[in-house]
């Protein structure tokens, strides 16, 4: 009996020892029975330097800890850290896109004003560059020209009184001597001021005008503004004068050109290169030679189809130039 107990007691002690060792050892609990909350806590504290896996930080190279590394990758710290870093990465890209597009839109804004000056008055300046407007030592006259100006005449168009006055040179070489006055018709599109050169302008003996009519002895002032005769209804026919328009000389009756009696239009046509400039202005004073008088012709059914200043031998007016005048035009 004693021998039985002697054999039983060591076996019982060994069983108790083994049971106590099994209860103390943590190794079987790590891969199998650790709750999810403890995994989350371990993952949350894994970012700290004194984490549970002190020997193996983030690389997780040990094969024994491989499953633990897999569980931390799926846990919240790694998941939340990825979107937190991705949000600032996308936001600078989004803000940089408008920053690069803003200078792209500003480029057309700077190019627009560069084109707007090029669209303005280049042809007008090419056709009629302004002439020298120096008044020298004679401020009593709006324009005298330079004393060394080689051209003999200067023309002034009074828009208010529809009178054209031509000035010649005085002894000092300035254009102050009135030599000719012409009755004219201007219009709403006539230049309202300024001085124009005839140096580079065109001329036409017969020129088509608006309204299907024709002008004679046309001299371009600027663009489609001309000196020309009263209109004719047929090209090349001096007997087709619009006599009612002739009787409007002295009033504003044109579209913008300067209409003249035929002899006056021819005078400017023949002396274009001798004219230093053409000035447009407004003044109640018609000029030093006053308003020239010309006849009304509409009631003269026999002659009214002809300009009364036309020196053509076929003209029914039978008109001849008075002594001392040029080209059949009055001197005053």
Overview features:
332 residues; alpha+beta; L,D-transpeptidase catalytic domain-like; nine-stranded mixed β-sheet; disordered C terminus
Beta-strand content estimate: 15-25%
State the fourth-level CATH superfamily of the domain at 127-281.
L,D-transpeptidase catalytic domain-like
Radius of gyration: 53 Å
Which whole number gives the mean pLDDT? 71
Q: Which stretches are low in confidence, meaning pLDDT under 50 for 5 or more residues running?
A: 24-57, 60-144, 323-332
The largest sheet, given as strand count, sense and whether it forms a barrel, is: 9 strands, mixed
Order of helices and strands: HHHHHHEEEEEEEHEHE
What would CATH call the architecture of the domain at 127-281?
Beta Barrel
CATH topology of the domain at 127-281: L,D-transpeptidase catalytic domain-like
Span from first to last CA? 173 Å
Number of helices: 8
The order of strands across the largest sheet is: 4-9-1-2-3-8-7-6-5
Overall SS class: alpha+beta
- Bin the helical content: 25-40%
Query: What's the overall geometry?
Result: elongated
Number of strands: 9
Which oligomerization state do the chains in this entry correspond to?
single chain
The first-level CATH class name of the domain at 127-281: Mainly Beta
